[in-house]
Each structure stands twice: as C-alpha cells, then as structure tokens.
C-alpha cells in the first residue's frame, strides 16, 4: 500500500518534464486505441455478415435431387429421379438427432413468368409448398394474420401467407388483405397472413419479401405434384452437427432410390452449418490479427515508456542513493519505479480506451440514421471482456516497461550515487 507521499512523488516525477511524458504516453494511447478500434471494426463486420443470415437456423442444410453419375442395379447413370414424401418419413425415423425435416415444393420465381393474379393485377413470385416448421428454419415476422399450421396441412386448405412485397404489388394501400383471394396458376388461395423476412437474403432483400407460402399438401394437390418433394430443409438438434449427420441422410436417399453408395453427385446439398462455421473461423482469425497488430503497436509505446523510465532513473541517481543511504530497501526502490511505470501506462491506456469508445459511439450514432439493411457492417462495439483484456494487457505492459529501469535502480550503490553530480 502506497502512502500519499509515494503518490505525490510519482506525480512529481512524471510531471517534471510533462512534454516528454505526454509524448511517451501517446505511444501507449495510440496502441490501445488501435487495438480497440480494430476489434470494434471486426465486430461490426461480423454483425453485418451474420445479420445477412436473418436469424436462420444455421445448423441446417438444404438438399435436392440431381442425376446419378454411376449406373447401379441395372439402372443407367444420368437418369432423373425425385424425392418422395416416404423419404421424409424414413429420414425422421432413422436419424433421431434431427429437429426438423421439412419437405418443400416450389414454382414460379422472381423475374419469371407471371403466376399470380388478383383482379387486373398480375405478378411473378416464388410460391412454396411448406410445413409449419419452415418458419423456425427461415425466421420471418408475421405482420398480420397467421402462418401455416397442421390443421391446414391435414385438411389441405388452400390458404396462403404473402410477403409485404407481394402485398405492395397486388393490393392498394390500406386495402384489407386477410380473407382476400389470389389466384396461383389458376387456383384460388385465401390469404390468411402477411410476413416480412429477416435479414437481406444474401443481398436479395426485395425478392425475400416477394414470396408466397402455402400448405405443402394443398400445393401438391393443386399443382398435381402427388408424392413428389422438390427439396428438403433439414435442421439438426442442438449439440449435433448437420455436417456429421448428412451422410446418414444421404445413405437413406441412396437406398430408397437405388443409387450407387459411392455416388456423391446424385444428391445436391448446401450445408449452411459448414458455411457458417467457416465464417466464424474467419472472424476468429480477424480477431487474432486485430490483437496481433494492436499489441505490436502497443509494444512500441511500451518500449518508449521503458526508455523514458531508464532516463528518469538516471536523472534521479542522487535521490535513489540518498534513499538507499537512509535505509530504503531494494524492494521499496523497485516498487516505486514499477508503480510509476504502471501508473503512466494505465493512465495513457485508459485515455486511449476512452478515445476509441467515443469514436465507436460516434460511428454508431451515424449508423442509426442510415439504412444498413444492404450494408455488411452493423453496430461496431466492444464488450466488457475486451476492456478487461485491454486493462490486463496495460498492467502487464506497465510491469514489463518498468522492470529493466527498476532493476537498474536497485543496482545503484549509495556511495556511488552520492558521488554523482
């Protein structure tokens, strides 16, 4: 525990040549400032990229049928086949670690032929035949009405949930949507809800709001799909990886459709969990780079402080000699020098953290007034853990900066010091 006299001596020593002290402290300030800004920028980029997923169940994959590339059991390569609803049941029964197995069908498409009619208005939209679980895999906000439920599936109800983009194109402003009818490829469906998709759908935010969801069973019946499944969205349970489970799913499909066990081209898939893991790995690497660069810059400031403390020790040779002659222990001398080094490091470092925090707050203030839906950057920030880490780095740096000067100070012999002019 240091007394008031010790602290007065520390402040007096550091302010004896205040201009030199400020220049020295600037190196540490700049180093910690760069570290915090780099970490905040990395977090902002990470937030922007992950926002693009829109809260999707990332432990998922999407799977569709392709043409087999190998003949098997008398069947030729290059033949076409389709998933069936029986495949869905088999997957659910034989792969217990799956949370959702959602069969999906689709028709139409953005920029394609007009497939939806309401009165005199027509439009081209993606129409999906889905089960209720899909809202958990591709989260969306229901802005009015409701989403598909299992009563709709069981009764094959011709009902539809439309996106806000469809509503804007097919309805007049303020016109009631719920309970109205739209005609999809000549079949009437009653609108029971509207939605707004989360995220920007990989840069296609407008298209994401121009989709229509109908019950899978009604879709199959209305558009003569029978037992055909166009593709599937499959999500694994928490604690399980869809990347590790998908081989079991593929084996079931291959067995059901007489596909060669080693034919990896017969089933197309997009592993969202694998892609998300790559993104997470990228941001871990970016954080490591930020720490590396920031600490290198900080190190240059620490070297400056160490040099200044060596000069201070040299200038105070007489003082140290007198203190030693009066009975000051080596630990007291060492502690005084180390405390001065740590104090200067922490003060300059906290100033750097405060400056960086102000810059981050200003950036966030500017972003609040902007449309960031199309930006790959959002809410740059640093959490408490980063601040604690920065403080830890500062304390360790201060100790390292003062260690050599402190050792030099205790090596000074009282008699030699008193002879020094």
Automatic annotation (TrEMBL):
GO terms for cellular component: plasma membrane. It is found in: Cell membrane. The chain crosses the membrane at residues 21-41, 288-313, 342-364, 384-404. Keywords: Cell membrane, Membrane, Transmembrane, Transmembrane helix. Pfam families: FtsX, MacB_PCD. It comes from the Bacteria. Residues 292-414 form the ABC3 transporter permease C-terminal domain. It is a multi-pass membrane protein. Residues 21-249 form the MacB-like periplasmic core domain. InterPro entries: ABC3_permease_C, MacB_PCD, Macrolide_Exporter_MacB. Its main location: membrane. GO terms for molecular function: transmembrane transporter activity. Belongs to the ABC-4 integral membrane protein family. This is ABC transport system permease protein.
